[in-house]
Amino acid sequence: MDMKIGTSGIPPHFWESKYSKGKDCRLNMPFWIKDIGLNAYEVLYTYGARMREENALILKENVKKTDIWLTVHAAYYVVLTSPKEDVQERSVEELFKAIRLADIMDAHNVILHPGYNGDDSEKSYNRFVSNLKLVVKKMKEHGISKPKISPEIGGKKSQLGSLKDIIRICEDVEYTVPCIDWAHLHAREDGSLQNINRFNDIIINCESLFIIKEHKLNYYPFLMLEKK
Q1: Which CATH number goes with the domain that contains 196?
Q2: Considering the domain boundaries, does residue 221 fall inside one?
Q3: Which of 16, 117, 162, 213 is the most buried (most CB within 10 A)?
Q4: Is the pTM value of this prediction over 0.70?
């Protein structure tokens, strides 16, 4: 497996580097990532996809110069499972904005949190899939196909996003590959990741899905903790 290791968002140490000067210094992140010996970077749109298109193009060029694997995390308030139609509509638009910018900057994945299950998990699942298909339809209408949508494992059992849910979503919707967040999975399954066999089972299961869908992309984020 070809491993890509990098940061999600901008760590504090970046602001101590020579790359942290100027108004749009965040666009220098690929150079800093390369300098510290890593090869991946996830752009966080925590509060919405607000990057200007011209900056997305600059980031694309900087990624190309450094050979960094680029991904995007969509806004946390994207909730495709919401029973409220206006929330669903805004979530579809916001997710597509993130995907459109990801396409401009030549990113590989757009990660999103599926949302909460509510009182009926199957209804929540169907709402999520139906809304995600609307996003895929918009992608096709705009000729976007490279960035794959990666629904992420949810850390709470009240959330849509079990391993089974994520694999099922990726079987049901085009342009999707799983985002297996190990920390979320470990928490959700009450500490299930105790040995290498469990990791292997999950990876093999997901790799089988990639082969079926003819996508050779995998996204397995780790949460790194600094021991004081």
Answers
A1: 3.20.20.150
A2: no
A3: 117
A4: yes
